[in-house]
Design brief:
319 residues; Rossmann fold; 2 domains; 13% strand; alpha/beta; 6-phosphogluconate dehydrogenase C-terminal fold
Length: 319
């Protein structure tokens, strides 16, 4: 990783945990925390491992060799506009966002051509709701690094090094592929959660049924609140992929509806059992240890394929 100052913009739980994780591996790293919120900055100074704080994003970033932008998608373009002209020569910007396609376009437009990688940090599912920032929050997580043919080797190394420093696994993807896959596992579940909530709350019997709603309803509607949806803005930015995945979901719902209509208990039970099996397999394949642990890195299914973004033509849009 490039030596020098590391600036982390956005001191929510994730930003604070990044300071802890980096300092636990690199205790001598110089970390500057940036956030306009006084409350979040006080939390960063109390919980995090911060050498300096700054409420001004421009002054916080102008001397940094590595900048980690942990800001909502709705604020990202403005952040690029502010820091782009003031970046240190050779500085690398890693942007953490759930939907990368739109962010990549803005970065290409507003940042030096080879200075950025757009990333998506995927935490272990059981850690998503963890409120207390911890240095080991990223153990077993995945850092998706979205690059193109112009991304420098220095920027690639910065992304890979950061992933391993915090205990995550670097994973290179193309923007379209990433957003298409994400639509199935985050975008559509968030919309389904919203639809379930509204269908119940708009019903005439809601005042009575709300008294009966408990754990299942709570868990089913929780995705509507998840920060990755950003009140729908991330879904609109990814609308083509979201619509395709919604069509696939509606097809599955028609299948379930037909089984219920037919009174086919056996087939419906088999379908539910298959879904539970796939969920168990998904969770079992996600280790809780840092990806640097040799026990985790060895063997299928935990060993993930890694594309080589330095190959000629990698990242070019396929016809």
């Amino acid at each position: 990783m490039t030596r020098g100052q590391i600036t982390i913009v956005g001191m929510d739980r994730l930003g604070i945990a990044l300071t802890l994780a980096i300092k636990s591996t690199l205790p001598n790293a110089l970390i500057v925390a940036a956030d306009a919120s006084g409350h979040r900055m006080r939390s960063a100074m109390r919980f995090g491992k911060v050498d300096r704080k700054d409420s001004n994003i421009v002054t916080a970033c102008c001397d940094a060799s590595l900048i980690i932008l942990n800001v909502p998608l709705t604020q990202l373009r403005e952040a690029f506009e502010m820091i782009g002209p003031r970046l240190l020569e050779g500085a690398v910007v890693l942007t953490l966002v759930p939907v990368v396609g739109e962010a990549t376009k803005w970065a290409d437009e507003l940042l030096p051509k080879t200075a950025h990688i757009v990333c998506h940090l995927v935490l272990h599912p059981e850690d998503v709701e963890q409120q207390e920032p911890r240095a080991d929050l990223f153990d077993g997580s995945l850092l998706c690094l979205v690059t193109n043919a112009e991304t420098t080797e220095r920027a690639l190394k910065a992304g890979s090094d950061l992933a391993r420093i915090i205990g995550a696994r670097p994973y290179f993807m193309e923007a379209f592929e990433h957003d298409s896959l994400l639509a199935a596992v985050e975008g559509v579940p968030g919309l389904i959660s919203t639809a379930v909530l509204l269908a119940a709350a708009r019903a005439a019997a809601w005042s009575d049924s709300s008294l009966l709603a408990s754990a299942v309803f709570y868990q089913a509607t929780q995705p509507a609140l998840h920060s990755s949806l950003e009140a729908g803005s991330a879904l609109i930015a990814n609308r083509d992929q979201v619509l395709a995945r919604l069509d696939a979901f509606l097809e599955s719902m028609r299948e379930v509806r037909q089984l219920v209509s037919d009174g086919d208990t056996e087939q419906l039970m088999q379908l539910v059992a298959l879904a539970v099996q796939r969920r168990d397999e998904w969770l079992a394949a996600k280790p809780r240890k840092p990806w640097s642990d040799e026990e985790v890195l060895a063997g299928s299914p935990r060993e993930l394929p890694r594309f080589d973004p330095l190959l000629p033509g990698w990242g070019m849009k396929k016809q």
